[in-house]
Amino acid sequence: MDERDASIKESLNSVKDTSSEVKQLEDEATAIMRAARAEISAALNQMKKETSVEVEAKLAQGRKKVEAELAEALAKLEDSKEETIKSLDSQISALSQDIVNKVLPI
Q1: Residue 77's Cα: distance from chain center in Å?
Q2: pLDDT tens, 80-89?
Q3: How far apart are CA 45 and CA 54, in angstroms?
Q4: Collapsing DSSP states into helix, strand and coil, what is residue 1?
Q5: End-to-end distance of the chain based on CA atoms, in angstroms?
Q6: In this structure, what are the phi and psi dihedrals at residue 97, rounded to the nearest 5 degrees?
Q7: Which keywords accompany this UniProt record (predicted)?
Q8: Phi then psi dihedrals of residue 78, to 5 deg
Q9: Which spans in the chain are helix H?
Q10: How far apart are CA 48 and CA 99, in angstroms?
Q11: Alpha carbon of 36 to those of 23, 28, 40, 52: distances in Å?
């Protein structure tokens, strides 16, 4: 009977020792997970910053290109406007002369 009691006590102590080891392992696992999450979060934040910088650079480049194309198109439009006005001026002069010739025959 004493042997059996001793065996049971030994088994209980062994289980208690094991449960403390399990608790320690759980604590270590929790600490590792916490550290991994922090590392992943830092890496994600860094990637977001880098991506943001790249996107801003590409947007600025695209904006410059569009502004240059717009300036070129506006310059061409202004040239076209001036040519049209010159053409209309010459047509107005010719038409005025025709009207004068018809109204006041010489």
Answers
A1: 34
A2: 999 999 889 8
A3: 14
A4: coil
A5: 151
A6: -65, -40
A7: CF(0), Hydrogen ion transport, Ion transport, Membrane, Transmembrane, Transmembrane helix, Transport
A8: -65, -40
A9: 2-103
A10: 73
A11: 20, 12, 6, 24
Tens of pLDDT, residue by residue over 51-65, are: 999 999 999 999 999
Tokens of 70: 């717009």
pLDDT at residue 106, as a whole number:
62
Residues 6+ apart with CB under 8 A from 1: none
Which residue, chain included where needed, has tokens 């502004």?
A: 67
For the CA atoms of the chain, what is the radius of gyration?
Answer: 45
Q: How many residues does the chain have?
A: 106
Query: Which residue's entry shows tokens 């650079």?
Result: 57
Whole-angstrom distance, CA of residue 101 vs CA of residue 106: 7
Give Dmax over CA atoms of the chain in angstroms. Answer: 151
> What CA–CA distance (Å, rounded) separates 17 from 15?
5
Q: How far apart are CA 85 and CA 87, in angstroms?
A: 5
Q: Report which residue type is found at 55.
A: V
Query: Tokens in use for 41?
Result: 């979060």
pTM, two decimals, is: 0.49
Residue with tokens 């042997």: 3
